[in-house]
From TrEMBL:
Stated name of the protein: Permuted papain-like amidase YaeF/Yiix C92 family enzyme
Lineage of source species: Bacteria, Pseudomonadati, Pseudomonadota, Betaproteobacteria, Burkholderiales
A Pfam family assignment: Peptidase_C92
Record's signal peptide: 1-25
Species per Swiss-Prot/TrEMBL record: Comamonas testosteroni
UniProt cross-references to SUPFAM superfamilies, sorted A to Z: Cysteine proteinases (SSF54001)
Length: 192
């Protein structure tokens, strides 16, 4: 134990205090990140492995950044990641979205060409989808991660052509918008 001006402190106490403050820190995003930008992650769950097996891309999931620096949240359509939470469109903290038990890697992509009004409209539409059901088998009944962010921007007026992929699996058949199709789009630019 060390003493300084009559007060005692220990190395282990300082380490624990530092560790606690580090655990509360939000993951660092680039300064250029804005609400409406996309955040991709390589997930750890079984559904993530399935998506990556079909897609052959770097990431299995995507969400939309909402909020601002130091207070980022991620709006995304997902199977339930919390006990008692239904599958659907949810708003999670950035640290929850990127926690190691859910994310092996991530990347932030800036949506280009959209005006400030389109950006605001895309975020507002996406936020209004909270609680909407997650549905990948029959997308007419719900929404999934890529269609949530793509629809938000296209409904805000951004011309965003995408390629759909034909998927033929025992329980999953049809045309799907996969994460790599968004990631490769000329409408977005990698910023981290």
């Amino acid at each position: 134990m060390f003493r300084k001006r009559g007060r005692g402190f220990s190395i282990s106490g300082l380490f624990l205090a530092w560790l606690g403050s580090a655990a509360l820190a939000e993951p660092a995003l680039p300064a250029a990140a804005q609400a409406g930008d996309l955040i991709f992650r390589k997930g750890t769950e079984g559904v993530s492995q399935m998506v990556m097996g079909v897609d052959q891309g770097l990431y299995s999931h995507v969400g939309m950044l909402v909020g601002r620096k130091g207070r980022w949240q991620v709006l995304h359509a997902t199977p339930s990641e919390k006990p008692g939470q239904a599958d659907g469109v949810v708003l999670d903290s950035l640290d929850f979205f990127l926690a190691p038990q859910r994310s092996q890697a991530f990347a932030v992509y800036h949506v280009q060409e959209g005006s400030a009004a389109q950006r605001q409209s895309a975020v507002q539409w996406a936020l209004a989808q909270q609680g909407r059901g997650f549905e990948i088998v029959n997308a007419s009944k719900g929404i999934y991660c890529t269609t949530l962010v793509w629809q938000a921007w296209t409904l805000a007026g951004l011309d965003w052509p995408v390629s759909l992929t034909e998927v033929t699996l025992p329980l999953l058949k049809g045309q799907y918008l996969l994460p790599s199709a968004l990631q490769k789009s000329q409408r977005i630019r990698h910023i981290q």
